[in-house]
């Protein structure tokens, strides 16, 4: 029970959240922009109200339970805001038929004379958002695709529900791990709500079935055991995180100045060995060529909600007269690698906590990528929980405006909204950096008084 004068306000915010989540998950379609953004705005206001009034440990615990309950309310919904589910099921059905998901493009199975694969039908094929590209999902994700499709071999909706059950379990684990890491750093327990109750996290991970949920869970396990000095378990968990999504590879350079010599080498070697073992069921020439092709396409053809890349792209149009993404993508990826490695080498691990360093590493990636879907920010929001920076929370609201581009006819990005999004986010980010720099300077000055 929530007691106190603000109790009714919390109850009202909770009820509004429940109703809006149900409305978005079960009723609204992706192209219904006004309803979707209106509902999301209501969710965000309710989220901020609950965060504001979470000023006791009892309220925090009550709101954590609410966060889990909100995820359960959308358990049976079909992921109407994302069509990635069809590729998940496609890959799962291929695996269950003994076919390597990287062996052929989806178009191969629609050609005359192609093998008849159970569940690989024209109706499913026409729902795929990238039928001309190889899959890009690593083995942990493929495992859950396979299990979900095996339980419901003829139902996409049934497979989606099974996937969502797994994701909710991972999310509950992540919420618990966040509280443990907050305790380690002696940070307020209410910070867990910035992740647990964030509408972007609930809708994109639990709602839209994005497998960042597993990557985040295993990443948190890796961070927790690294902080407590149990490096073997940490390396194993990091390998599972990498095998869920490849993104955690960018955090490896940060360990260079946090553990030294033999310990660092052993950690890297163990992570590589564990990752190789996890990839073993899929490792063959098809995996190597298919994954390489997918990654190459990601950096040289895909573009969505970018910032620095869009500015450079306009320069390319002006100078060359055409889209230079095939050049810019490679240079931006190389620049991200150089900047991340440079930051890892020069940052002071005694002043910058590991999660904060990870936040700036992933921000480098986000600023230089050619593609930034809303769910990519889930890791940014997560890491901000352990820092004084709140611009990721603001960003998690603004990034949802990208859904305005969807219509019944397809997708057309609204660059005006994209510009507004990044101007606001970058201004607030640099403001917070300045404020925290001034604060830390004053704190260091007091030590010498």
UniProtKB/TrEMBL annotation:
This is Polyprenol phosphomannose-dependent alpha 1,6 mannosyltransferase MptB. Keywords: Glycosyltransferase, Membrane, Transferase, Transmembrane, Transmembrane helix. The keyword Membrane applies. GO terms for molecular function: glycosyltransferase activity. It is found in: Membrane. InterPro entries: MptA/B-like (IPR049829). Belongs to the MptA/B family. Signal peptide: none annotated. Its main location: membrane. GO terms for cellular component: membrane. It is a multi-pass membrane protein. The chain crosses the membrane at residues 9-28, 34-55, 62-81, 161-183, 195-225, 231-252, 264-283, 324-346, 358-377, 415-434. It comes from Fulvivirga marina.
């Amino acid at each position: 029970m929530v007691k106190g004068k603000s109790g009714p306000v919390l109850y009202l915010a909770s009820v509004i959240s429940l109703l809006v989540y149900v409305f978005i998950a079960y009723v609204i379609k992706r192209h219904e922009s006004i309803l979707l953004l209106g509902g999301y705005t209501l969710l965000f206001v309710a989220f901020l109200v609950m965060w504001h009034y979470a000023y006791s440990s009892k309220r925090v615990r009550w709101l954590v339970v609410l966060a889990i309950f909100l995820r359960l309310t959308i358990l049976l919904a079909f992921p109407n805001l994302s069509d990635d589910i069809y590729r998940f099921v496609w890959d799962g059905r291929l695996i269950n038929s003994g076919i390597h998901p990287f062996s052929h493009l989806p178009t191969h199975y629609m050609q005359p004379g192609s093998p008849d694969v159970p569940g690989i039908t024209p109706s499913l094929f026409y729902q795929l958002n990238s039928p001309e590209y190889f899959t890009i999902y690593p083995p942990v994700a493929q495992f859950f695709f396979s299990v979900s499709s095996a339980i419901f071999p003829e139902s996409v909706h049934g497979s989606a529900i099974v996937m969502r059950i797994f994701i909710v379990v991972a999310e509950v684990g992540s919420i618990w791990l966040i509280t443990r890491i907050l305790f380690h750093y002696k940070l307020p327990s209410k910070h867990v709500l910035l992740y647990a109750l964030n509408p972007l996290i609930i809708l994109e991970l639990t709602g839209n079935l994005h497998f960042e949920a597993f990557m985040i869970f295993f990443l948190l396990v890796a961070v927790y055991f690294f902080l407590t000095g149990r490096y073997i378990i940490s390396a194993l968990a990091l390998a599972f995180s990498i095998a869920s999504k490849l993104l955690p590879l960018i955090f490896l350079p940060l360990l260079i100045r946090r553990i030294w010599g033999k310990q660092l080498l052993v950690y890297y070697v163990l992570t590589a060995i564990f990752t190789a073992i996890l990839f073993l069921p899929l490792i063959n020439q098809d995996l190597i060529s298919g994954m390489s092709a997918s990654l190459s396409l990601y950096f040289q053809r895909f573009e969505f909600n970018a910032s620095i890349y869009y500015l450079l792209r306009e320069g390319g149009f002006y100078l060359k007269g055409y889209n230079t993404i095939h050049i810019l993508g490679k240079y931006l990826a190389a620049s991200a690698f150089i900047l991340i490695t440079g930051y890892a080498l020069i940052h002071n691990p005694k002043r910058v906590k590991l999660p904060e360093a990870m936040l700036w590493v992933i921000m480098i990636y986000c600023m230089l990528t050619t593609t930034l879907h809303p769910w990519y920010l889930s890791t940014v929001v997560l890491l901000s929980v352990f820092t004084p920076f709140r611009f990721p929370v603001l960003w998690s609201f603004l990034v949802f405006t990208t859904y305005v581009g969807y219509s019944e006819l397809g997708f057309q990005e609204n660059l005006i909204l994209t510009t507004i999004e990044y101007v606001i986010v970058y201004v607030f980010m640099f403001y917070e950096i300045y404020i925290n720099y001034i604060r830390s300077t004053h704190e260091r000055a007091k030590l010498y008084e």
